[in-house]
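Give me a protein, keeping tokens residue-aligned:
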Amino acid sequence: MIRQHVDAIVTCSEAEIIDATRFVWERLKIVIEPSSAVVVAPLLAARLRAKGRVGVILSGGNVDVETFFQGLAAQWL
């Protein structure tokens, strides 16, 4: 199935996942879980060349909001 339908597989670092989570919060005001940010990170890092429009599914049900906001606050201290 993958050989037939997948053009590329890309990876991202944990730092890029955190950056993507922060990016989505800052721009869209949506708290997403890190596993959802794994899809966003390669797009932001330009590791994935996409033609036309790209759709991603973002989810946020598995986030400890207190830890999330502490991490954001640490950025500005």
